[in-house]
Amino acid sequence: MSSRQIENSDRVLVIGASSVDVVGRLQADLQLATSNPALIRTSYGGVARNVAENLARLGQPVNLLSVIGKDRLGEDVLAHTRAAGVDVSAVYSTDLYPTGFYMGILNEHGARHFAVADMRVLEELSETYLDYNEFLFEHAAMVFLDANLPEPALKKAFALAHKYHVPVCADPVSGAMAARLKPYLRQIRLLTPNNIEAGVLTGTHFEAGNRDAALEAARALISMGAEMVFVSLAEYGLCYASAETSGHIPAIRTAVSDPTGAGDALTAAVIFAMLNNIEIDDAAMLGVSAATITLRYHGTVDPDLTLEKLYDEFVI
After folding, report:
1. Is the pLDDT of residue 296 over 80?
2. Which fold is adopted by the domain 12-166+252-312?
3. Which long-range CB contacts under 8 A does 296-299 form with residues at least 24 apart?
4. What is the percent of the chain where pLDDT is above 90?
5. pTM value?
6. pLDDT at 5
7. Model confidence over 51-106: pLDDT tens digits?
8. Domain range annotation of the chain
């Protein structure tokens, strides 16, 4: 079936970054100015691509709008994502930039120490590209986007979603990118920041372990226009809020192999719950379950993720 023959359905349109991830887990304390022994793995990443793959593995139809380089890494990202069940027929390849690249360093306990990313390729995710794929907005049940988008493309994505009355879910991605979403809070059905990103959006910074501050930030973002807010707090769990309710879900105690992608799995599970009319409290628990499964996996997306596995973790 041609992508331009899509009919109205429960498809999610996912827009944003695709990349190759290289993550090293230190085997001892970091020593500067020398080589450090580490366990290093490579996988396929990018916030939007991760969300798309998780949704596909949960059985949700999904289209991806993203940009890769015309290089071997881009071909590999595309092939893997297609094999996972994501419709990648509209992904754009450019020879102006290399495929996106993320490098993360974890400490010996599995917590992220620091990270760098080269996402110049997303400069090619343009208004024109989104206009060309406008039909995907028209036939989407929901749009997910990450704040890696250039600001003109971000504005265009919200405009097209508004034109076709499609709810928008958004991930702020990082403290550096989060402020890009502030003008659009009233158009966001679901917002999924961590504590740093929530602090940028509200102007009140707090530590992940401060549950009361996280709940207050979630409620503040509701008052600023977002419809539902899920604030990830790493090992401290998740705080969430809507106009009707708010709450906290503690993290599930588990060994951490690699935290990369855990937040994206949480987001995908909550989107899946929303599309299947699951109440917000249960959606939050499904999100924590998805994050837990991903934390244990030595990679960015667990290829064995299923709804059954989510409910198996549903023991909070």
Report:
1. yes
2. UDP-N-acetylmuramoyl-L-alanine:D-glutamate ligase (3.40.1190)
3. 296/254, 296/255, 296/256, 296/257, 297/257, 297/258, 298/41, 298/257, 298/258, 299/41, 299/43, 299/258, 299/260, 299/261
4. 89
5. 0.94
6. 44
7. 999 999 999 999 999 999 999 999 999 999 999 999 999 999 999 999 999 999 99
8. 12-166+252-312
**Encoded tokens for 14:** 């996912």
